[in-house]
Amino acid sequence: MIFLVLIASVLIAGVTVYQYREQSKDYHENRMERKEEQIRQSIDLAIQKTTYPVTTENLDLIFKNEIYEIAVVQNMNFNIYSLDGELIKSSRPKFANDSISMCLDAEVLNKLEISPNKHYVRENALAGDKYKASFSYIADQKFKPIGILNLPYFEDNSFNDYELKEFLFRLSGVYLLMLLMAIAFAFFISKYITRSLETISTMMGKTNLSKQNKKIYIDNPGEEIEKLIAAYNGMIDELGQSAVKLARSEREQAWREMAKQVAHEIKNPLTPMRLTVQSFERKFDPSDPQIHEKLKEYSNTLIQQIDTMSSIASAFSNFAEMPAQQNETLNVVKIVKLAIDIFNEDYIHFIADEEEIIAKLDRTQLIRVVTNLVKNAIQAVPDVASPRVLVSVASEGDMVKISVADNGHGIEKDNEEKIFEPKFTTKTSGMGLGLGMVKNIVETYKGTINFTSHLGKGTVFCVKFPKENT
To answer: What SUPFAM superfamilies does the entry give (predicted)?
Structure first.
């Protein structure tokens, strides 16, 4: 309704402007024709009364004074040219003759010559204003052309433009009132039509799987509304049954997910334990003078991983989440270095800008984060000719930044958004819980994790934790 009112107002305004323009155009054309005819009659009368021979050469004498009298009577200036286009006489004052063309161009003469009625009208421009100029032949009493009559006609549309503005102003007032009435009418009509729909919409908005939903009851609804209410009430009944099934399914799925995550968490420390034992077996030398220090180092690593497995088992047995946070003030550089020492690959390198960067974190969970990221980096470079994994620790403002970079095959663009999703993996083995778990640990400590990857060049994972305030 509002749209129709707006369209109607625009169309009527457009038609009104067009009609005013057409009326103004017709008025000026008719007026110019009348003025030209009156001036021609006055010229013919002057030719009949003259005592001079009616020739082109005598036009200046014939209209020596009469041209001014005719211009005053008809209230319009005009010019007389010879058949060759040279100005003979003008009714305009001499000081204004500089704006009059002293000679007609060839186009005017040609158009006038080939015109069937020996009449030609051309639009000209003077001082930025447009005006029309009509050209016709002046004939003697035997209808022989002896000169050219030029009538400049300036169109004064100021009055019409003023009337048009006044009319459009009144019309806009009327349509503004109609628009306000249409808005009010549309509002009340829509309220009347949609009051039953609002009740249904409100009830639908309150629908929740976790509670008992109420059915809708409306007195004397329309036929369509009644069908909609019946469909909603039937959906509520089905929803209640589905909620029971869904709750049972969610409990079963939760147990499955917990079992998978616990299995994944237990598997993580087993791998470094195995690598540690193999490394110890390969490098064991009873005659080494530092054998006691190395043995203690290997033992500490094994004990640390055993403690991790123990905390996971304890948490599972108590139906809790992953190991509870045991926040402690620790040197991140030292812990990260300790975490990567369990890996035997010689292409793993570690650098740190400082010897000590203090943060308040859980030692076990920090090791778990680093271990998962390094394992993923190792698995990304098996087919690379010169594999390289770089682990770095640095300060970045109030944050400590841990980076794990590899020169592996990179991550596909389609997989970048899903890389932290649980159970997502691009490997043939594993359950895809590692990076999801890492993200949860990092966010628990108000940290961030992100990565950049280029196919064929490698991937860099960056983890940031808040540093301990000193």
So the answer is: ATPase domain of HSP90 chaperone/DNA topoisomerase II/histidine kinase, Homodimeric domain of signal transducing histidine kinase
